[in-house]
Write a structure and sequence with these properties.
It contains five helices and no strands. The protein is mostly helical and 121 residues long. It is 86% helix and 0% strand. Helix 1 runs antiparallel to helix 3, helix 1 crosses helix 5 and helix 4 packs antiparallel against helix 5.
Length: 121
């Protein structure tokens, strides 16, 4: 496996695992439910976001999914990370909490960059 594939699959695996883990937490963890209340979001948004994170995670890792659909998943995750950053800053959370989505946004960007780099060979 060449370097580009290793970087792509590592970063994509990190994003996928994080999205699956957070989606599972949205459905099962009372602290996650409380976090949505703290951020001022309605409870149905927690469920909606959890379902979309599950779908998006599978879209990124399943090879049978078209690149156009994968691009929507990348965009959706990028929008989620930027929105999470803004929500945490707006609610007065510490910068250490607010920066985490930006770290994942960078990892997502690396995954997207190497996905395109492998396609254009």
């Amino acid at each position: 496996m060449n370097k580009n594939k290793i970087i792509y699959w590592t970063t994509t695996g990190i994003i996928t695992a994080m999205m699956l883990f957070s989606a599972f937490g949205y459905f099962t963890n009372a602290d996650m439910k409380a976090a949505f209340v703290h951020l001022g979001f309605p409870d149905y948004f927690r469920i909606e976001l959890g379902v979309l994170k599950l779908f998006g995670a599978f879209v990124l890792i399943l090879p049978l999914i078209s690149d156009k659909i994968k691009s929507f998943a990348y965009f959706g995750f990028a929008l989620t990370f930027v929105s999470a950053f803004i929500a945490h800053l707006s609610s007065g959370d510490p910068i250490s909490v607010a920066v985490a989505p930006i770290v994942f946004l960078v990892i997502l960007g690396v995954s997207y960059y190497f996905k395109n780099k492998m396609e254009n060979k």
